[in-house]
UniProtKB/TrEMBL annotation:
<dbReference type="Pfam" id="PF17164">
    <property type="entry name" value="DUF5122"/>
</dbReference>
<protein>
    <submittedName>
        <fullName>Uncharacterized protein</fullName>
    </submittedName>
</protein>
<dbReference type="InterPro" id="IPR013431">
    <property type="entry name" value="Delta_60_rpt"/>
</dbReference>
<dbReference type="InterPro" id="IPR015943">
    <property type="entry name" value="WD40/YVTN_repeat-like_dom_sf"/>
</dbReference>
<dbReference type="InterPro" id="IPR011047">
    <property type="entry name" value="Quinoprotein_ADH-like_sf"/>
</dbReference>
<keyword id="KW-0732">Signal</keyword>
<feature type="signal peptide">
    <location>
        <begin position="1"/>
        <end position="29"/>
    </location>
</feature>
Amino acid sequence: MTFRGKLAGLIASVAASAALLLPGAPALAVVAKVTPDPLPTFNGTVLATAYAGDTLYVGGDFTSVSSGGRTFARSRLAAVNARTGALLGWAPAADGSVRAIAVSGRAVFVGGAFTAISGVRRDSLARLDAGSGAVHNSFKQSLTGMPYSLAAVGGRLYAGGSMTSLNGQSIGRLAAFDQNTGAVVAGWRPKASGSVNAVVAAGRRIYVGGSFGSVNGATGTRNLAALTTGGSVDTGFTSRASDMVRGLAVGGSGIYAAMGGPGGRLGAFTTSGVGRWTLTMDGDAQAVVVLDRVVYIGGHFDNVCKSARTGDKGSCLDGNTRRIKLAAANESGGALLPWAADGNGSSGVHTMAASPRLHKFVAGGAFTTIRGAARARLAQFG
């Protein structure tokens, strides 16, 4: 190669590396590659994802998974090696959709619209073995409604969803269980006035988001609230969530809420609930993760608006930047980044999860392509 050619290559390499550094953010903040990793493809919508070490657990409405030129039966649950992309043998079979997954040690907790897993009766909530997929003998609950989100932390499993009764007792769409025994944590009984779509834990707080007017009737808890491990509202956090919250993530700078509304919103809040920045889309934001100081957003939008003003059916009134189903923003200030891993379809992305250990994140949903290339319903970036 000529000197001029080497110089051009060096300049291109430096420019590409510089493009990964976020404006105004620490040098460690980098944007994922736009091209996703090779992964298996799914014949139905992916609704739940969770990392545990090198394993990615997947749940949804699918009944088969294609990998390495072959198709394998997988009834709404599957597992993938997140490093190699290989489909794993883990194959418990749910008889209804799986909406939520959380992992703790050897336990994989799943929630959804099922009544049995691998022929074992379980009412919308179950504990599975992370290796064999066997149904554990705990979590034999009776639920009216179902979990939409699960968080496993501190020896407890926190669940939020549409549940209105648990073992015959009235509850307010939130519950907590002992991870080992499945016993209900009797003292943890917060009540949301509407559906809870997202539950995440950070320190001694449990953040919950959804379409509720309040939790425990407290002011400043509309659509988004912080709860204590004792089940009371943490008054150190006041909600400024303007619309229904569909997804939540916690980052180094605060809380991030994927919201619906006229168009859609991604709201960034401090740990006291003060608004830091907002992105507006022309469709709902439905999932969000934070990885390496970048906020990744998924939903059924086609554009990110240049202002907060939206018109009929959420259209952007002051111009837009094309971002189809996926977008990325600078965590420190909310600047929209040039990362554009465009998906397709109408409902788009339903779930996202991140692995700081692997420096990867995953998006699952109803899309079948990413940047025009086949990526049926699951895409991992890193």
